[in-house]
Amino acid sequence: MGLGYIGLPTAALIASRGIQVQGIDVNQSVVDTINSGKIHIVEPALDGLVKHVVEKGLLKANITPNNADIFLIAVPTPFKGDHEPDLKYVESATRMIIPKLKEGNLFILESTSPVGSTYKMAKIIFEERPELKGKINIAYCPERVLPGNVIYELEHNDRVIGGLDEKSTYAAQNFYRHFVKGELHATNAKTAEMCKLVENSSRDVSIAFANELSMICDKAEINVWELIHLANKHPRVNILQPGTGVGGHCIAVDPWFIVSEFKKEAVIIRNAREINNYKTEWVIEKIKSTALQFELDNNRKPTIALMGLAFKPDIDDLRESPALLVADTLLLDEKFNLLLVEPNLDENLKYDLIDYREVNGRVDIVAYLVAHKEFKGFKIECIELDFCGVKN
Ligand SMILES: NC(=O)c1ccc[n+]([C@@H]2O[C@H](COP(=O)([O-])OP(=O)(O)OC[C@H]3O[C@@H](n4cnc5c(N)ncnc54)[C@H](O)[C@@H]3O)[C@@H](O)[C@H]2O)c1
Questions:
Q1: Substitution candidate for ligand 1 out of 249, 256, 316 with most atoms within 8 A of CB
Q2: 139 vs 57, 113, 161, 162, 351, CA distance in Å?
């Protein structure tokens, strides 16, 4: 259920083991694209795998589910309003499955979810189908893949598997054994749910430290990239790289699932989220002040190139992207002539994009927002602002 960045590679990998997979997505164009053997997202090696399993008849996409032995949910879990987790997609996917469930089925939730969600879905299932109590297995198994390396990591990463009871954990372990070479660590559903949230919160806190350092170093006139490189020579220090902020729908979202439920206790986790969000505002202010200084010095408005819009290097994913927030904020301000560059997107309906090779000779200021590989050797004569370390 859900054929996005997680669901589609998972469906294709399972199908590649000779298992019959029906991939369900509420988006008809996603269904049509997959059934024609193509993919709608950028992910290395995925196109060939999907083409192969669709041609062999092992993966077929559909808009509604049919009967199955195993149901696996990988739909989005965004947050709403005051960073409260929004389970509406998980709930609607669960409700689509309920009429199809039968004795012996295994229901797996993979979507990143607040603690207690698996139990909540079980409650919804048994309210409608009380006769299935004790007769189906229900487990939570979070995903921890790296976009850009999904196929390899799906197969090789260790997995944490938490059933609502031991029988469910065991059933889910048996299922994942068909396509996961990593270890399958058994626990309960609540611990597995919290484990996923904690993994991403830990990353967020570490990045916040690097981002805080970058702002301190800017004030102290120290090159933060050199500083981190030197500090990491200590055998037990490993500082991450600062950037434009934190994006994507995992690290920028999941910590809020802890903060919203544990408001008093989650102090470092909340601060880290706030520091990483503030870093993006700081970047915007830096670009604005550089532009104003240029205008004072040259008596004309500068043209600025924003290099990269995705939430991290070498992908096309714009979700929760801090670079996109920088672009949107500056676009609202008529004082700036902006050129937007995103080498991982051919075109975008909302933004006019320009090829990075066409920037030369046309801009006064270049702001590197995402460390895409194309920008590494890129040479240009103008004011360069490096917020992602691609030039350091
Ligand atoms: N992308 C990642 O790198 C990543 C990593 C780890 C965990 N996750 C988690 O995995 C989950 C899925 O993320 P994603 O990146 O694959 O999302 P996505 O937005 O790429 O894809 C989700 C798909 O689900 C479909 N959908 C929505 N409601 C549906 C329903 N009721 N039935 C069937 N399909 C439905 C959407 O049309 C969409 O195609 C989220 O909880 C996310 O937090 C993602």
A1: 249
A2: 28, 12, 7, 6, 41
